[in-house]
C-alpha cells in the first residue's frame, strides 16, 4: 500500500472511531440521566431538586407508622434540645461558656429521627454541632452542660467543651472541630465493626460545608470500595442547613445536589425533608436496616435549616435576610410537630405547656449543676494524653540528660575542707585590674 492510500485509510479509520465515540457518549448520557435509578443520583434532581426553600418530594400522608405516644415522646426530646441550646447561648453571652459554641436549633428533627434507628453497639460520629446527639444518646444534661462550662464534672472532664463531646459507652465517638476531619474516622469505625464480625452501623453526620473537603472525597472513595466487599456499614447523613458558616451552598459548589455527589463513589443515596420528623424516621429506619443487612454504605442528604446563627458570636448574619429566616421558621420542626399533635388531639395546649415547663426545669438544673461544679484539678492536664507529666513538661528529658552528664563527668572524691572556726573568714583575693574595669 502506497503512502497516499495508507494516509487515506488511517484518516477514514480515525473518523469512524471518533464518530463511534460520539454516538456511544450520547447513548451513555441518555441512559445515565433518563433510565430510572430507584430514586438515586441525578435522576432525583427533577423531583427532589435542592430548591431555595429546601423542599423535596412530599411523602404520602400515613406512610410512616408513628404512633402518637411515640411522637409525644420525641416531641419532648426535641423540646429539651431546643431549651438546652437556648440556655447555652445565654451562658455564652454571660461568659460562662468559653471557646466557641454552635447550636442545633432548627435541625432537631434530623438527629432525633435518625437516632431512632440507633441500636446498642452502633456508633455515632459528628462535627462540632454535637449537643443534640449527646443528649439523644442518653448523656445526662447536667454533665453535658458542665462540659460546656469547662467543669470537672463534664462529660469529658471539662477538656472538650462544646465542640468535642464524647460518650463512648453510649456510642458517641465524638464531636470534631475540624471541618471534614472526622469523616475518615467514621468510615474507619464502620470498617472496624464489620471486620470484627458485628452487624452494627456507624451513623456519620456531616455538614454541607464538609462536602468540599479532600477528606470527604478520600473517605467516600474508600467507603465505596470497601462497600463492594460488604465491609463498610456506614450511613452518611449530610445535614444540609444551606450554609457553611456564612457561605451558601450555591456559592460553594457548582453541583448543589449534594446527595448525587456520592454516585461518583458507587454509594446509593437519596434526599429527605429534614424539617419533617416523620419523613426522617421513615427514611432512617429503612436505610439503616439496609446498611445493617448489606454492609454497604448509604448516603442521605437531609435538607434542613439552622434558625440560629452559625455560632454564638455570629451576631449580624449579613449573609442571609431576615425574610429568609422568617420563612424557614414557619417550617420549624418543633412547631410542625406541635401542630400535628394538636390536630390529632394527642396533646392540648395545656399539656404542651407542661412539657415545656418540664424541660425548662431539667435545663435549669443542668445550668445550676454546671455553675456549682468545680474546675478540673490541674493534674487533669496530664491524664488521658499520650505523654505523662514528666514528658509533657520536658522534665523527663532534662532528668535523663542531667544523669548522663553526671555520669560522664564523675569527679574523684576529695577530702572535705575542715570546718572553719566561728568568726574566722578567709580573706578574699583582690580582683585584678581587668575585673575591676568590667
Task: Write up this protein.
The chain is built from 15 helices and 8 strands. It is α/β, with parallel strands linked by helices and 438 residues long. It has one domain (48-382): Thiamin diphosphate (ThDP)-binding fold, Pyr/PP domains (Rossmann fold, 3-Layer(aba) Sandwich). The chain has a 6-stranded parallel β-sheet. The chain has a two-stranded antiparallel ribbon with strand order 5-6. Helix 9 links the parallel strand 7 (268-273) and strand 8. Helix 3 (68-93) packs across helix 12 (349-372), helix 4 packs parallel to helix 9 (277-294) and helix 7 (183-195) packs parallel to helix 8. The longest helix has 32 residues, at 3-34. The chain is globular. The termini are far apart.
Nutshell version of this structure?
With 438 residues, the protein is an alpha/beta fold. 45% of the residues lie in helices and 8% in strands. α8 links the parallel β3 (202-207) and β4.
Report the average pLDDT across residues: 83
Could you tell me the number of beta strands?
8
The CATH class designation is Alpha Beta
In sequence order, what are the helices and strands, one letter per element? HHHHEHHEHEHEEEEHEHHHHHH
Structural class: alpha/beta
Q: Summarize the amount of helix as a percent range.
A: 40-55%
Q: What distance separates the N and C termini?
A: 101 Å
The CATH homologous superfamily is named: Thiamin diphosphate (ThDP)-binding fold, Pyr/PP domains
Tally of domains: 1
For the record, the CATH architecture stands as 3-Layer(aba) Sandwich
Which strand order spans the largest sheet, edge to edge or round the barrel? 2-1-3-4-8-7
- Spatial shape: globular
How large a portion of the residues is in β-strands, by DSSP E? 5-15%
Radius of gyration: 31 Å
Uncertain segments of ≥5 residues (pLDDT<50)? Answer: 23-55, 58-63, 420-438
* CATH fold annotation: Rossmann fold
How many H/I helical runs? 15
Largest sheet: 6 strands, parallel
Amino acid at each position: 500500500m502506497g503512502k497516499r492510500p495508507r494516509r487515506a485509510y488511517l484518516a477514514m479509520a480515525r473518523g469512524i472511531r471518533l464518530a463511534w465515540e460520539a454516538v456511544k457518549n450520547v447513548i451513555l448520557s441518555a441512559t445515565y440521566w433518563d433510565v430510572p435509578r430507584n430514586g438515586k443520583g441525578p435522576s432525583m434532581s427533577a423531583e427532589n431538586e435542592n430548591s431555595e426553600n429546601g423542599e423535596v418530594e412530599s411523602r404520602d400522608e400515613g406512610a410512616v407508622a408513628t404512633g402518637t405516644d411515640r411522637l409525644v415522646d420525641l416531641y419532648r426530646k426535641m423540646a429539651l434540645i431546643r431549651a438546652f441550646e437556648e440556655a447555652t447561648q445565654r451562658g455564652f453571652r454571660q461568659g460562662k461558656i468559653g471557646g466557641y459554641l454552635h447550636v442545633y436549633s432548627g435541625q432537631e428533627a434530623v438527629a432525633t429521627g435518625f437516632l431512632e434507628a440507633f441500636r446498642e453497639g452502633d456508633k455515632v460520629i459528628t462535627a462540632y454541632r454535637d449537643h443534640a446527639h449527646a443528649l439523644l444518646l442518653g448523656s445526662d444534661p447536667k454533665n453535658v452542660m458542665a462540659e460546656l462550662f469547662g467543669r470537672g464534672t463534664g462529660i469529658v472532664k471539662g477538656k472538650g467543651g462544646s465542640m468535642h463531646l464524647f460518650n463512648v459507652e453510649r456510642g458517641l465517638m465524638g464531636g470534631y472541630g475540624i471541618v471534614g476531619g472526622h469523616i475518615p474516622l467514621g468510615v474507619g469505625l464502620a470498617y472496624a465493626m464489620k471486620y470484627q464480625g458485628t452487624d452494627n452501623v456507624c451513623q456519620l453526620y456531616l455538614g454541607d460545608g464538609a462536602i468540599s473537603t479532600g477528606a470527604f472525597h478520600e473517605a467516600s472513595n474508600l467507603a465505596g470500595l470497601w462497600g463492594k466487599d460488604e465491609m463498610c456499614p456506614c450511613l452518611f447523613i449530610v445535614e444540609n442547613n444551606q450554609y457553611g458558616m456564612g457561605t451558601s451552598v450555591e456559592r460553594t459548589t457548582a453541583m448543589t445536589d449534594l446527595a448525587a455527589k456520592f454516585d461518583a463513589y458507587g454509594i446509593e443515596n437519596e434526599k429527605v425533608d429534614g424539617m419533617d420528623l416523620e419523613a426522617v424516621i421513615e427514611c432512617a429506619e429503612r436505610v439503616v436496616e439496609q446498611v445493617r443487612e448489606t454492609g454497604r454504605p448509604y448516603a442521605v442528604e437531609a435538607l434542613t435549616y439552622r434558625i440560629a446563627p452559625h455560632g454564638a458570636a455570629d451576631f449580624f448574619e449579613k449573609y442571609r435576610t431576615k425574610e429568609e429566616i422568617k420563612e424557614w421558621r414557619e417550617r420549624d420542626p418543633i412547631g410542625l410537630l406541635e401542630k400535628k399533635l394538636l390536630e390529632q388531639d394527642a396533646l392540648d395546649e395545656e399539656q404542651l405547656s407542661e412539657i415545656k415547663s418540664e424541660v425548662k426545669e431539667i435545663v435549669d438544673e443542668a445550668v445550676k449543676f454546671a455553675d456549682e461544679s468545680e474546675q478540673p484539678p490541674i493534674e487533669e492536664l496530664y491524664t488521658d494524653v499520650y505523654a505523662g507529666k514528666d514528658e509533657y513538661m520536658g522534665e523527663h528529658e532534662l532528668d535523663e540528660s542531667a544523669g548522663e552528664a553526671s555520669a560522664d563527668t564523675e569527679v574523684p572524691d576529695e577530702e572535705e575542707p575542715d570546718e572553719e572556726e566561728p568568726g574566722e573568714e578567709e580573706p578574699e583575693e583582690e580582683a585584678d585590674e581587668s575585673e575591676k574595669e568590667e
